[in-house]
Amino acid sequence: MEGGTGHILQIFNMDKKQKLSNIEFPENIVFWRWVADDVLGVVTTSSVYHVSIAKPDEKEVKVFERSGDLKTGQVIGYVLSSDRKWSALFAISTPDGGQTINGHIQLYLIEGGKQQLLEGHACTFGKVLLHNDTHQSNIFCFAERKAGETKSLIHITEISTPPEGAQKFKKNSEIIYDPSTPGDFPIALVVAEKYGLLYVVTKFGFVYIYEVTTCEQIYKARISTQPIFVVARNLTNDGILALNKNGSLFGGMID
After folding, report:
1. Are residues 61 and 9 in the same domain?
2. Taken in order 212, 218, 223, 229, is the CA torsion positive or negative?
């Protein structure tokens, strides 16, 4: 707001030329993203909120406070599971002026009010077939790299109840980065639910594709020589859309 801290968030329905929300936040908004068709995730300097356009008369709902290194890190993403029981905030920081980029993830169980802090650059949720051809499982995927280490791991963990007689799925494997970009790191993970695959998109324009049930890398390609700025799932073909810092838009899909 003018003369101080805080932002006013306004949401409009452009088709109907109608204002849906007008919310005053006492703190500055540092990040926002649509995490569902009717829910806008809003991150302020201290907390994470959900704003619903399905219930425009309702005020913002505070989900959790930023914790640990997430208090001061540069937020690069926020995700919500399809059942809306879990959410995760991820951010980056540097201890040495940009030579090393550390990743921080705050995984939060909304119903239970519990959280876990992880060392990783990016994460996502998804629904895939893990155990048989009919049981869909909710999964949490994240790219882990502990501070001071160079090794990165992709983790895929089942967070819903498995079918009777089955154990919860949990696998990981190492990310083998292209040797031409030793300082590379993931900025976005996207689950291709139709194909049971995981896209890992990195800062320096690489896409690594993993088969979920084996957690094995099956494909690698560079889609941009310029740093990637933002990534989203393409709902029309279960692919990805990526925007680089020069404003070029790239698309990828399984053929």
Report:
1. yes
2. positive
My answer on whether 2 and 81 are in the same domain is: no
Please state, in angstroms and rounded to a whole number, the distance separating the CA atoms of residues 228 and 148. Answer: 24
Split at pLDDT 50, 70, 90, the class of 1 is low
pLDDT in tens, 52-73: 998 877 889 999 999 999 999 9
pLDDT band at 228 (very low <50, low <70, confident <90, very high): very high
Instruction: Give 27-35 contacts, CB < 8 A, sequence gap 24+.
Output: 30/75, 31/75, 31/76, 31/77, 31/78, 33/77, 33/78, 35/78, 35/79, 35/80, 35/87
76 pLDDT higher than 80 = yes
Site of tokens 């799925």: 169
For residues 128 and 152, what is the distance between their CA atoms, to the nearest angstrom? 23
Query: 107 and 204: one domain?
Result: yes
Whether 241 contacts 234, CB under 8 Å:
yes
Which structural domain range is residue 87 located in? 66-252
Q: Is the pLDDT of residue 217 over 70?
A: yes
Q: Which residues contact 26 (CB under 8 A, 6 or more apart)?
A: 5, 6
Residues 99, 206 within the same domain: yes
Residues 40 and 142 in one domain: no
Neighbours of 164 (CB within 10 A): 6
Residue 150 pLDDT class (50, 70, 90 cuts): confident
Determine contact, residues 81/68, Cβ cutoff 8 Å.
no
Residue at a domain's end among 31, 48, 65 = 65
Measured distance CA(141)–CA(124) in Å, rounded = 5
